[in-house]
Design goal:
This protein is an alpha+beta fold. It has 2 domains: about 80 residues, F0F1 ATP synthase delta/epsilon subunit, N-terminal (ATP Synthase, domain 1); about 45 residues, Up-down Bundle (Single alpha-helices involved in coiled-coils or other helix-helix interfaces). The chain contains 2 helices and 8 strands, in the order ββββββββαα.
């Protein structure tokens, strides 16, 4: 099946794959060849792509997934391949977001900080794969 991950700026991924796993707003789900057509709203998270024995990880920062006729299209505001992510920068972003959350005085500030934490955690998970352990606080 064909997978395309597209942002406003570029095509992040465009190739044949065997399996797709991602995070929708209602939870994580997977798509294999022969899946019924589906459209889903995506949450901030990781999209895991498997082709043969190879596994690739991509951040997907929300968006929409459509699967139909053995083609999967992900339209997202931002996406990065795990191997493109600067680990140090992602950790610094996570630390800053956690600090902002602790200092948030208004609910909107807390929501923004929580979204920043989710984005930073997704970037680290895409970079480090199963090695990552996100510490609380």
């Amino acid at each position: 099946m064909k997978l395309k991950i597209i942002t406003q700026e570029r095509i992040v991924f465009d190739n044949e794959v065997d399996e797709i796993y991602t995070r929708g707003v209602d939870g994580e789900f997977g798509i294999l060849k022969g899946h019924i057509p589906v459209m889903a709203a995506l949450d901030i998270g990781i999209t895991k792509v498997k082709t043969g024995n190879d596994t690739l990880l991509y951040t997907t920062m929300g968006g929409i997934l459509q699967f139909k006729d053995e083609e999967c299209l992900i339209l997202t505001t931002a996406a990065e391949a795990g191997d493109e992510i600067d680990e140090l920068r992602a950790k610094e972003s996570l630390d800053r977001a956690k600090k902002r959350l602790k200092e948030a005085k208004a609910r909107i500030d807390a929501k923004r900080a929580e979204a920043a934490i989710a984005r930073a955690e997704a970037r680290l998970k895409a970079k480090l794969g199963d090695q990552v352990h996100i510490s609380e606080g």
